[in-house]
Amino acid sequence: MDDMKKDLISSLKEREQVLIKLNEACPVCMDPYTPGTAYFLTNCTHVMHKECIKGYITSEIDGGKPEITCVDPKCKKLLAPEDVFRNTSDD
């Protein structure tokens, strides 16, 4: 793993720890974050539980949406292809 990827992973873990310390809640399910549950969207600053974004993306695809935007209704940014792939693949 290269240094840039290690730095990014470290930064995301730090951001998740801040969410946990502040007792922030997922905007989808309203449950607080716990270690390893936060998913940070690539094209915007929004974050939600991994399972919540996965459910949202699956629902949008099943509904035939050709483009999937952020779950926040005020945010019109399209989800990055890697966000969709990571949350719909079987890995």
Describe the overall structure.
With about 90 residues, the chain is mostly helical. The chain has one domain: Zinc/RING finger domain, C3HC4 (zinc finger) (Herpes Virus-1, 2-Layer Sandwich). The protein has 3 helices and 2 strands. It has a two-stranded antiparallel ribbon with strand order 1-2. A hairpin with a 6-residue loop joins β1 and β2. The relative contact order is 0.15. The mean pLDDT is about 85.
Outline the low-pLDDT stretches: none
Cα-atom radius of gyration: 14 Å
How much of the sequence lies in strands comes to 5-15%
The coarse silhouette is: globular
Do you know the CATH topology?
Herpes Virus-1
Task: Provide the succession of SSEs.
Answer: HEEHH
CATH class: Alpha Beta
Termini distance? Answer: 19 Å
The assigned CATH architecture is 2-Layer Sandwich
**Averaging pLDDT over every residue, what do you get?**
85
What is the domain tally? 1
Please, how many helices?
3
Q: In what order do the strands lie side by side in the largest sheet? A: 1-2
Can you summarize the main beta sheet? Answer: 2 strands, antiparallel
